[in-house]
Amino acid sequence: MIIRGKQNRYLRSQAATMKPVVQVGRDGISDNLLKQILQLLNKDELIKVSLLQNTLVDADQLTEALTELDGGVSLVQSIGSKVILYKKSSKIKNRKYSLELEKI
């Protein structure tokens, strides 16, 4: 999904107060980590991921691995060790942010 400027701004504002729900550590990117992130994205649509200091992974590598697994994942923002990811939920009851994005 392509996120336009105003939509991106809205998602960044919503994620500003979020705490990271996933941490990527020394082990880097594994299949279990990617599955966990995709499950969280399907449930919440917008999540914040923290890249720990001892990891060799950067935001681009994480986003690339997720988009290879599921093409609907979008990188909203990456600042330092924090990465904000968005994916429209497949379940209608979990769509909170995507409904707002359609209005923008």
From TrEMBL:
CRM domain mapped to chain residues: 1-98
Gene3D superfamilies in the cross-refs: YhbY-like (3.30.110.60)
Protein keywords: RNA-binding
UniProt keyword annotation of Nucleotide-binding present: no
SUPFAM superfamilies: YhbY-like
InterPro entries attached to this UniProt entry: RNA-binding_CRM (IPR001890), RNA-binding_domain (IPR051925), YhbY-like_sf (IPR035920)
GO MF annotations in UniProt: RNA binding
PANTHER family associated with the record: RNA-BINDING PROTEIN YHBY
Protein name per the record: RNA-binding protein
Source species: Companilactobacillus ginsenosidimutans
